[in-house]
């Protein structure tokens, strides 16, 4: 991917609470993974060999932590750029004693390009990415043909991409883009997941949630 690509996120100046700041300072060294050019070694991170799932944009982390807690036999790496969300998730990891969940605070596309090995991921979660609803902002949407190819390359054969959005036109856009990727096969259904904060907000506004499941051929 072009290093000068348009980013799909904006670093908003949200308030970071004292407890989140403390978590960033004290818990990231324990539960965080520093971004770097070296390929990720899951065995070195988790101390075992297990299926590895990567989440793009974990938000405040409540759903991420719940999924990891419910699936102790799977290892998870959450990617998030916003400090309050990272701090919140670090607190949850510590409170729940989760040994199978770690966090990277960096741009997800760069993590995929530079840290994730090809054919290494059993799953990828992409829940409620920024829909950029205004037409002039559609170019900022994360799901584009180059990302679809990148995601497919990082999944193992049979690996699952699970995406969700509450914007109908973005769901249709995702279906078009992901359906055009020759390495993806669409599935009618997949594993359920806990509800996210953004999902609850969307439902209150009357939005319809669309779940998308694709399997790597």
Explain what the structure shows.
- The chain has 217 residues and is α/β, with parallel strands linked by helices.
- The chain has a single domain (18-216), classed as Rossmann fold (3-Layer(aba) Sandwich).
- It is 36% helix and 20% strand.
- It contains 9 helices and 7 strands.
- It has a 7-stranded mixed β-sheet with strand order 3-2-1-4-5-7-6, sandwiched between helices.
- α7 links the parallel β4 (121-127) and β5 (155-165).
- The radius of gyration is 16 Å and the shape is globular.
- The two termini are 22 Å apart.
- The model has no long low-confidence stretch (mean pLDDT 93).
Task: Write a concise synopsis of the structure shown.
This protein has 217 residues and is of the alpha/beta class. The chain has a single domain, classed as Vaccinia Virus protein VP39 (Rossmann fold).
The fraction of residues in strands falls at: 15-25%
CATH superfamily: Vaccinia Virus protein VP39
Instruction: Give the CATH architecture.
Output: 3-Layer(aba) Sandwich
CATH topology: Rossmann fold
As a percent range, the share of helical residues equals: 25-40%
What attributes does this structure have?
single chain; 217 residues; alpha/beta; Rossmann fold; seven-stranded mixed beta sheet
């Amino acid at each position: 991917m072009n290093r000068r690509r348009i980013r799909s996120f904006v670093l908003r100046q949200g308030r970071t609470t004292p407890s989140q700041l403390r978590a960033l300072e004290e818990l990231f060294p324990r539960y965080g993974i520093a971004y770097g050019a070296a390929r990720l070694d899951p065995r070195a991170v988790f101390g075992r060999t297990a299926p590895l799932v990567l989440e793009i944009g974990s938000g405040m982390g409540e759903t991420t932590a719940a999924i990891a807690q419910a699936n102790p036999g799977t290892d998870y790496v959450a990617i998030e750029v916003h400090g309050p969300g990272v701090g919140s998730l670090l607190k949850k990891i510590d409170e729940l004693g989760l040994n199978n969940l770690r966090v990277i605070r960096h741009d997800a596309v760069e993590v995929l390009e530079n840290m994730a090995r090809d054919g290494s991921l059993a799953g990828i979660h992409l829940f409620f990415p920024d829909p950029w609803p205004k037409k002039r902002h559609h170019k900022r949407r994360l799901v584009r043909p180059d990302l679809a190819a990148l995601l497919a390359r990082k999944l193992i054969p049979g690996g699952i991409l699970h995406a969700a959005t509450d914007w109908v036109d973005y769901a249709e856009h995702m279906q078009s883009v992901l359906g055009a990727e020759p390495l993806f096969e669409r599935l009618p259904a997949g594993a359920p997941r806990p509800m996210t904060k953004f999902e609850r907000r969307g439902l209150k506004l009357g939005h319809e949630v669309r779940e998308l499941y694709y399997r790597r051929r």
